[in-house]
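Regression test case RT-17, inverse folding.

Input:
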């Protein structure tokens, strides 16, 4: 796919797939790293239960649905934020200066829930609509094990739809978007092979369904990026700072230059779990 094709598809549909962006060996190392993270070999994870050394690797993985900010404790996952194939595509859809602000390691074993319709930009607000997710498949993602579903073109109006809490057991505890002019018949499943990357716009409506497979995982590493030229008003600003000047600085520059380098960086977020419905809902 040429850079022109990539950009035109992304602008039209709100997403594009980078086929086999990571090699089999790179995926295998990330899968191994996921085990080390879940066994807490690399550091503490807020909200996680104590480690049971007798557990198998698979059982250790099954204890988790999603771990936020694994790049804080894993050099490999931090390096994957800067993967050349991903960064090259990001500079085409965002621009030359790109920063990352979040990573999430999804485990999603059999029986684990999906996530309801939502737009990432509602949860991570940027000032310039540049938010872009990079969803890296560590297993083949299928309709059976809970791949992503998207509403193609739903990013184009530039509308952020309202959110509400829900009690649908097929989804985790995060909020769901509603009031949008699309229905499930418009949705498209994005089945991709391990090592491929789904790049998608922060305004794109997307969801996932539960892993209904009899065994196995649907693991994915998801990183979020935006233009480094834009402020990121993601957290409550310090007292006395106008909201218009709020700028979350727990970020990682992955391409180009950071115009706000003079502000320095902060360590704000820590690795933490996202509980599923069996473990209690996390609304924080």
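Golden output:
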């Amino acid at each position: 796919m040429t850079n022109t094709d990539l950009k035109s598809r992304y602008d039209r549909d709100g997403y594009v797939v980078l086929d086999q962006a990571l090699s089999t060996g790179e995926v295998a190392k990330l899968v191994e790293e996921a085990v080390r993270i879940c066994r807490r070999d690399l550091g503490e994870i807020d909200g996680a239960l104590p480690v049971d050394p007798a557990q198998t690797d698979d059982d250790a993985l099954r204890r988790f649905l999603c771990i936020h900010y694994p790049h804080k404790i894993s050099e490999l996952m931090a390096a994957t934020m800067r993967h050349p194939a991903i960064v090259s595509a990001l500079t085409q859809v965002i621009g030359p200066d790109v920063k990352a602000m979040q990573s999430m390691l999804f485990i999603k074993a059999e029986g684990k829930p999906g996530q309801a319709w939502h737009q990432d930009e509602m949860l991570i607000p940027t000032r310039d609509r540049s938010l872009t997710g990079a969803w890296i498949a560590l297993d083949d993602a299928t309709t059976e094990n809970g791949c992503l579903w998207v509403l193609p073109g739903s990013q184009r109006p530039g509308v952020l739809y309202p959110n509400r809490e829900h009690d649908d057991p097929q989804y985790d505890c995060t909020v769901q978007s509603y009031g949008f002019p699309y229905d499930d018949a418009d949705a498209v499943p994005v089945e991709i092979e391990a090592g491929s990357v789904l790049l998608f716009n922060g305004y794109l409506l997307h969801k996932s369904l539960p892993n209904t497979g009899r065994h196995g995982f649907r693991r994915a590493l998801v990183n979020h990026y935006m233009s480094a030229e834009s402020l990121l008003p993601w957290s409550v600003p310090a007292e006395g700072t106008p909201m218009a000047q709020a700028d979350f600085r727990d970020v990682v520059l992955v391409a180009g230059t950071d115009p706000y380098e003079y502000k320095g960086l902060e360590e704000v977020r820590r690795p933490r779990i996202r509980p599923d419905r069996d473990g209690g809902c996390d609304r924080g």
